Amino acid sequence: MFSAPVLNYSLLAPILIVLGGALLGVLVEAFLGKAIRATAQLAISLGSLVLAFAQIIRIHSERSLTAAVNSVAIDGASIFFQGTVLVLAFIGILFIADQDNFAAQASAIPGSEEERSAIETGKQQTEIFPLTLFAVSGMMLFPMATDLITLFVALEVLSLPLYLMAGLSRRRRLLSQEAALKYFLLGAFSSAFFLFGSAFLYGYSGSLSLSGIANAITAGNGNDIFLLIGIAFLSVGLLFKVGAVPFHSWTPDVYQGAPTPITGFMAACTKVAAFGATLRIFYVGLSAAQWEWKPIITTISILTMAVGAIAAIAQRDVKRALAFSSIAHAGFLLTGVIALNKAGLQASLFYVVAYGFTTLGAFGIVTLVRDSAGEVTDLNRWVGLGKKSPLIAGTFVLFLISFAGIPLTSGFIGKFSLFNAAYESGNILVVVVGVLSSAVAAFFYLRIVVMLFFTEPANDSVTVVIPSVMTRIAITVCALATIILGVYPSLLLNTAQTFANFLA
Amino acid sequence: MSIVTTLELLPLLGAVLLAVIPKSNAELAKRVALATSLVTLAVAGVMAYKFQIHDSAMQFVQSNKWIASFGINYAVGIDGIALVLILMAVVLVPVVILAGWHESENGKWSAKVFYILILVLETMMVGVFAATDVFLFYVIFEAMLIPVYFLIGGYGRGERAAAAMKFLLYSLFGGLLMLAAIIGIYVIAGNQIGHTFDLAQLSTLTIDSSTQNFLFLGFFIAFAIKAPLWPLHTWLPTAAKSATPGTSILLLGVLDKVGTYGMIRFCIALFPEAAKTFTPLIIVLALISILYGAFLAIGQKEINGLIAFTSISHFGFITLGIFAMTSQGLSGATLYMVNHGFSTGALFLAAGWMVSRRKSSNIEDFGGLQRVTPVLAWTFFLAGMSALALPGLSSFVSEFLVLVGTFTRYPIAAIFGTTGIVLAALYVLIVIQKSLHGPTTPGNEDLKDLNLREKISVAPVIALLVIFGFFPKPLLDAINPASQTVMTHAGVTDPAPKAGK
User: Fold this and answer.
1) From CA B334, how far away is CA B181, in angstroms rounded?
2) Is residue B67 in a domain?
3) Which one of A407, A435, A453 has the shortest CB-CB distance to B143?
4) With a cut of 0.90, is the ipTM above it?
5) How far does Cα B179 stand from its chain's mean position?
6) End-to-end alpha carbon distance in chain A
7) How many domains in chain B?
8) Does B143 sit within 8 Å of A406, measured CB to CB?
9) pLDDT, tens only, A50-82
10) Residue B257 falls within a domain, yes or no?
11) Cα(B369)–Cα(A223) distance, rounded to whole angstroms?
């Protein structure tokens, strides 16, 4: 007897709306003329994100494990992560809307006649919008998935569009395509690890659901070797996505090669989704086996913080530098995973939001610094920017200060709450390494401040373009969020506290 | 709203006002800044008048919820120690503004920005001494670095960017260690009495001794960098050489006092046992600072560097007084903080005027200033005499108290400390002889003496040095009950006098 699966559409509405928007976008791309295509795509993207967010608000107090046949959880954390992805994606799209950054025709060979004519005739393709929406839907599904198959599907849904988007840069296309290929190959590799780990966990527990695995660990009847291999391989897949050392080497290359708005979107939203899923897997599925994985993840967290902070110092390219800083932040976020308590979850929720806004803002500013050949990412050419455009440089410094975790910015509160959770759970070593690597990182951020403000500018053609209205709004929102969450964090901390729970 | 909060808000209000003034009108910006700092001073005067001198509890307390989920409050309140330090800070700010009327002109940015930074800094200086919530203290402690960083880096001289960077990195490093310790004590509080950052409640915790030692070190290293104690001092001379005189005064006079203040307020109050454990080590470091700072001051060829090293020596005295663990030593140390603020302030002012007139900061370029610029020379002379703790000037009282307080418990340390006084005479008299006396060095003949504005700005500082030299009672009256409270809480009593048999 076969019975059709029961789906609770009302609870799945947010993600369905985003998927619907993406499909609509594909149709628009195919059938609408170039005159109104970009506008239509933008409207559809932003509209579906807003609608989805409205649905999130509607279901914010609903709790369910059966919305889609036991494979997704509607609980505090999943609603919070979905909402965060939506808000950050909204800002990300405002940056993406500046079409000047993207290849007019992605299929044209770099440097070919076809490419030139596509640019000259203004035949700008806008597939970036539906791709973004597809990625967003994956990012929403990833933190709510409660079984390994759904997790894998979500991982792929979020990753595949990103591989493409990384290759769409209009300028320095070869670098961009190289980044895309690298990202794709390594990403595919890590997906394989994830799948392999899932298989072993299934072999160990006879169940694909996280709660089933948790029960099997508690019962302790299975073959522990399978469990260990399963955890190890699953972790590799996840750690790759969050960019933790030693699985981080793709990050600087991809961040550098991808079009900057995409880099910002990736850095902010992927991190939210990946940490959402990581937290759920470790908190719900594997917490009973914490003695097996905690030492390893602790080591990785320490390494990630240290390597990210130290390697950033040596960077000469602003996007690579921000990439290493995002690696260091992944290390900080891992302390929330290790903490394995409610405080850790609450701190992680706060941190991903704070970090997301700051990162988007920082990359948004990178898009504005240009010369005649496009964006300038060589840090040596940023020298003296504070004199040319104090406002933009000042805002960038604000984001850097927040990354460095100086009080009265959101980054400080985020770090404080994460370290607090880690200390509470007894991981004092992580806290000490965390504060020390913050000091190292501060050196790197300060070096940029010195370059921007205290070094005499060389006679250089670097200029800051006047931001479009949407970019301006987006950067303003990010800067405001960075300050407000730093001065009055209760606004978000209380929300995070309310939503810091997993249904198991 | 407590008057302390008013005191914090006033300079901030002035800064906001400055922000809307057009950049081109530097004169107006200066006047607004000066007026703001004078109003602040007046309000501080009212606060001092209302202060109940015999009440050893925190006064003018205010507490509002800030970050409820962590139990963080905006909580302020002052006792005698905080009161005198706040008063010193709000006296020095108008002096700095008036004395350095043209200081902002060589900067990277406009005068307006300079005064906004100064006023924001004033807000934080009041806040940092008044905070009774450890988290609030930490936030201000760290946030203060930013205006100072830009003041040094944007308006200083020479290698200003590098000096600013060094200053900031040292301080941040210490601050982050303190953050780890703060988180530690917060978690312990959570296990014992519930999540709180309230200083009074935190000081009731029972912490096992090894944890206490680690947490103590987290705080102490941060404060020892700030204060600065040998061997964590190397940022100070570079910063002092590069900063403008006004910034130097605020940096050495007020900001560095946060370090020694923190030792009293946090290290001893929160971790009395650990403080006793580390006392021998800290006393040795303090003695090294006294002697090392003095010797290096003798060898300095650069006048600002000289003042910086004398300060390292003086901070050694202050630390010695604090960790002598006697109420006399503690009162003496607190008084020393105030007096050092004024005497170093006067030194930096005089040195700054000398440097700006001579366009050189090498000591050997001066000489015979006594004849050319008598008022300036007398100012420098008096400030120098105060630095070497001449009886009749305020520093004498405090140095004497520190040494007496130390002697009752650690006689040998006190004897070593006393040699610091001899060395002080040496470094001050040498520079005075070289720069003020003797034949007028070629190139100095046409130097102008102080103008009226400069005289007005330095007069109150000199007056305070003399007044508190003869009549330190009002300050000590305010300080003594508070230092008694600190000592009682730490569980130490003054050693009984042994002499007389």
Assistant:
1) 25
2) no
3) A407
4) no
5) 22
6) 29
7) 1
8) yes
9) 999 999 999 988 888 888 888 899 999 999 999
10) no
11) 89
